[in-house]
Amino acid sequence: MVMNRKVLLVNLWARWCVPCKDEMKEFSSLQRDLGDDRFEVVALPVKKRSIGSVRKILKAWGAENLQPYGNDPQALARVLFNEGLFTEREISFVYPTTYLVGKSGEVLAVREGFLDWDSSEARALITALKDDVF
Hey, what domains does the chain have and what are their CATH numbers? Predict the structure, then answer.
């Protein structure tokens, strides 16, 4: 298994998806407050986009704290599946879909649809995972 050395919150989003837009501010807040060498929010657009295009969308959505990624999530899903990080059951293209990935690369949770990621419970979980409490 691949070692990430950090907890990842990997989110697949689409520009036309209202719940995706609603979550982005929360992800940006999480990244601003908890992001470091042990945690990162990785927001991947559904459609392959340039970094400049993603940066504009994130800015318009109030999510400037997120690193802009322009990768193709379908290609990423194939790579993750081939590396054994995801099972076929875990690859989803419902938007938004978010994967919580542990430091050792295991998928700890999958959430299809909107979730309050900026809640005290979510922050406590991420902090515990960062600090190896589990």
Answer: 7-130 (3.40.30.10)
Helix (H) or strand (E) holding 126: helix 120-130
How far, CA to CA in Å, does 36 sit from each of 16, 74, 82? Answer: 30, 27, 28
Q: Are 129 and 103 in contact (CB under 8 A)?
A: yes
pLDDT tens digit sequence for 101-127: 888 888 888 888 999 998 999 999 999
Question: Among 100, 96, 89, which residue's Cα sits nearest to residue 45?
Answer: 96
Cα separation, 42 vs 35, whole angstroms = 11
* Segment 2-50, tens digit of pLDDT: 555 889 998 889 899 999 999 999 999 999 999 999 999 988 887 878 8
Strands 7-13 and 107-112: unpaired
Q: Are 69 and 44 in contact (CB under 8 A)?
A: yes
